[in-house]
């Protein structure tokens, strides 16, 4: 059973930064591409960023480019999402997900596993 646990969310003022972590257990971490998604209340999950198994290739949704950085540490079975210059519109529950498929997959439903999420709230 593959298990993903996110951490690092919280309340920050606009312009602030957060670093989210996603630790994976129960599987071979470097077999998976990893993705981050976010979901605001009453809305569908939205793709944020993803990274291939080695960390050499990354993809971003347009609003994340230049502000967010996805990375991974295969020795620690952990993926990260560094978020800078946060805006109130970034307020959401953030989920990490793992897929054996292509790292450019942007639909959460196509990922094989997902975590329970961590709340990020950005105050204005």
What features would you describe in this structure?
This protein is mostly beta strands. The chain has strands at residues 3-7, 10-13, 18-25, 33-39, 46-51, 58-60, 68-73, 78-83, 92-99, 113-114, 118-123. Strands 2, 4, 5, 6, 9, 10 and 11 form a 7-stranded mixed sheet that branches. A 4-stranded antiparallel sheet has the order 1-3-8-7, with no helix packed on it. The protein is globular. The mean pLDDT is 96.
Q: Please give the radius of gyration in angstroms.
A: 13 Å
Low-confidence stretches: none
Would you tell me the overall average pLDDT?
Answer: 96
Q: Helix amount, in percent?
A: under 10%
**Main sheet: strands, sense, barrel:** 7 strands, mixed
N- to C-terminal distance? 40 Å
Query: What is the N-to-C succession of helices and strands?
Result: EEEEEEEEEEE
In short:
This protein has strands at 3-7, 10-13, 18-25, 33-39, 46-51, 58-60, 68-73, 78-83, 92-99, 113-114, 118-123.
List keywords for this structure.
124 residues, mainly beta, seven-stranded mixed sheet, four-stranded antiparallel sheet, globular
Sequence-ordered SSE layout with sheet pairings:
Blueprint (H helix, E strand, L loop, with lengths): L2 E5 L2 E4 L4 E8 L7 E7 L6 E6 L6 E3 L7 E6 L4 E6 L8 E8 L13 E2 L3 E6 L1
Parallel strand pairs: 2-11
Antiparallel strand pairs: 1-3, 3-8, 4-5, 4-9, 5-6, 7-8, 9-10, 9-11
